[in-house]
Amino acid sequence: MRAMVLERPRTPLVPREHAAPAPAAGEILIEIAACGVCRTDLHVVDGELPNSKLPLVPGHEIVGRVAAMGAAVEGLAVSERVGVPWLGATCGICPYCRSGRENLCDRALFTGYTRDGGYATHAIADARYCFPLPERRDDAEIAPFLCAGLIGWRSYRMAGATASDGEDAGPRALGLYGFGAAAHILAQIATWQGRRIYAFTRVGDEAAQAFAKSLGAVWAGGSDEVPPEPLDAAIIFAPVGALVPMALKAVKKGGRVVCGGIHMSDIPRFPYRLLWEERQVLSVANLTRADALEFLALVPQAGVKTAVTRYPLAAANDALSDLRTGRLQGAAVLTP
Ligand SMILES: [Zn+2]
Ligand SMILES: [Zn+2]
Description:
Quinone Oxidoreductase, Chain A, domain 1, alpha/beta, Rossmann fold, globular, 26% strand, six-stranded parallel beta sheet, 8 helices, single chain
């Protein structure tokens, strides 16, 4: 197998070749067809997240086919198409696992962070955390659902939205700060549910603002702008702590500001009056398998399409640097 490997944080990934491992009991070997490039990968490569496995194969938006199965794998078949998300395994016995919050598991393993991921031709995964993916859609186009889609969905739920779309089902006016891979998927679902999306981008990024409007946003502007109506809730996908007080300023009384990323620059000090009147600031960590099943069932109903920029596996460093500088629209995807 071939892989792009992080040997030390803050150094470029290097190509490596070795024999594909055999799956142990409960595991599958996947022949990878596509792997999305997520902002979290950047945080890992840049050393902003501590204690990653090293050397490490990054990547946690894997789409591929089952090439081999270890003993005791249930519910999957060889050559079936599967997706592998960020949540790679949980302990099943800690208080979080036992209370439906496996995303907070004390001993979780994360794909492309504490176990090897998908910047490769093959990967090993715990079969219980893989999802069968219906055929008919292009591998690269569905890869971003495995993290950008799922984390966006969990953030959306934390903002008060639900899978139904009645008047009482959460925010009507929803702000999205940072219009990258996650926001471009979520905007389509929220618009389909009849919500009004306000998209905030880097100041002066007219291409991203036009992109947001093309996906249904009723308004798009710079993150320093005040939206034309007060927001019921806002989700911050950009890793910029300064957006927290800005979003608090934009939400109504009782409104929520959800931080959707795994890492953020420091939040600047702000006056209590921005939080007053029962405004809330929340963070979203990881995903549960239940989130994934709910989201993946909704995607075809909402007719979500993804905008992807494809890179060959060997160009993983280019994909990361384009994501870092904001040079791409939608999601970057590696194909072996
Ligand atoms: Zn646990
Ligand atoms: Zn991710």
